[in-house]
Amino acid sequence: MASHYNSFFGGEEPHFLESCSLCRKHIGLNSDIFMYRGDKAFCSKECREEQIESDEAKERSWRLSARSLRKKSSEAAKDSAAGKTVRTGTLVVA
């Protein structure tokens, strides 16, 4: 079945507005489309909210891990300044 967006955009691949970015349900031509971040289409408000919650959880996790890395780096710098031997988790191989 040809995409109803192909006539507008001329592409062979399915257009991003044809199916839900989360559940992959087909979004009909006359259906409401719930957008998120400008390039993700969803079939319902619930699917969009689930994606938003997932993205926020990933962002919180990333922030916590970044904070943890900064803390470890700061502690290593203090130990190095105090004359202690410091080992880092980085290995360089040529």
UniProtKB/TrEMBL annotation:
ZnF (FLZ-type) residues: 15-59
Keywords annotated in UniProt: Metal-binding, Zinc, Zinc-finger
Lineage: superkingdom: Eukaryota
Pfam assignment, any one: zf-FLZ
Record protein name field: FLZ-type domain-containing protein
InterPro entries in alphabetical order: FLZ1/2/3, Zf-FLZ_dom
Family under the similarity heading: Belongs to the FLZ family.
Occurrences of domain FLZ-type (ranges): 15-59
Keyword Metal-binding: yes
Molecular functions (GO terms): zinc ion binding
Organism, as annotated: Brassica carinata (Ethiopian mustard)
Region: Disordered, residue numbers: 73-94
UniProt key word Zinc: yes
